[in-house]
Write a structure and sequence with these properties.
Oligomer: single chain
Helix content: 40-55%
CATH superfamily of the largest domain: PAS domain
CATH architecture of the largest domain: 2-Layer Sandwich
Order of helices and strands: HHEEHHEEEHEEHEH
Strand order of the largest sheet: 2-1-5-4-3
Largest sheet: 5 strands, antiparallel
Distance between the termini: 55 Å
Number of domains: 2
Number of helices: 7
Length: about 250
């Protein structure tokens, strides 16, 4: 079957175009793969930087709590003598925070704001309090609700001891939204988050309203895998930083 001259020209053009089209497709796919790898690497770099900043802030809270715990021990664990220490700590603080001295029985003996003392709260059954009472020097306070304002807070607790005698614990808690100032990274809202060692969402960037019932992220596969590699005793805040671009890219 003889092809017309027009058909022959068309076939010749198609034959000439095929290598160009194939090359263009290869370039697009290669460029997409490279862009994807670059995006994942960039997301991981951001996540590591954010995690480092969160960890540094947590350690700063811990150090401050340990110093005040030592001063509270020198004050004999007497609430009336510890109260001025907490007020001084508030004045020196660069971040909105709550400070409390918890008595050995689990009740609040001194606090800033003072409403905490009158709240009637008892911490006897709280994991952080049980840990410091039974020998730990300090422990994280995982995400909880402030009894004063009802907002999500997290922080640290440090044991107050005189020799082998447990005098109580000093706690410092800060609002979860404090990360707006602590980590002022300019990124799209809800593009990264901080999760504590129990899988609770501490902070979702630039998203002030996250319902309490929606903060449990422990069932998410990415978070389960991250926490799996952290021994229980090392889950400080253990702020696992999840940058959502990285999560989807891995």
């Amino acid at each position: 079957m003889r092809l017309s001259i027009r058909a022959q020209v068309i076939l010749a053009c198609l034959a000439a175009m095929l290598p160009l089209v194939a090359g263009e497709i290869y370039y697009i796919l290669d460029h997409y793969r490279s862009a994807r790898v670059e995006a994942v690497a960039d997301a991981r770099e951001h996540a590591q930087a954010i995690a480092s900043a969160a960890a540094a802030f947590m350690l700063d809270l811990r150090d401050r709590a340990l110093i005040v715990a030592q001063e509270a021990a020198l004050a004999g664990g007497k609430p009336r003598r510890v109260q001025p220490l907490l007020e001084r700590l508030l004045r020196e603080s660069r971040t909105e925070a709550y400070f409390a001295f918890i008595l050995p029985e689990g009740e609040i003996g001194a606090a800033v704001p003072r409403q905490l003392v009158m709240s009637g709260l008892k911490f006897t059954d709280r994991p952080f309090f049980q840990a410091v009472r039974t020998g730990a020097e300090w422990r994280p306070i995982h995400l909880t609700q402030s009894p004063v304002r009802g907002i999500p807070v997290w922080g640290v607790a440090a044991a107050v001891r005189s020799g082998d005698r447990f005098l109580g614990a000093v706690t410092i808690t800060v609002p979860a939204m404090a990360f707006d100032q602590i980590i002022p990274v300019r990124m799209p809202p809800a593009s990264w988050s901080l999760v504590d060692g129990q899988g609770q969402l501490v902070y979702l960037n630039s998203t002030p309203e996250v319902p309490w019932e929606g903060r449990d992220r422990s069932h998410h596969d990415l978070i389960r895998r991250a926490l799996k590699h952290i021994p229980a005793e090392r889950r400080l805040s253990n702020h696992e930083v999840l940058q959502h671009g990285a999560a989807h890219g891995c």
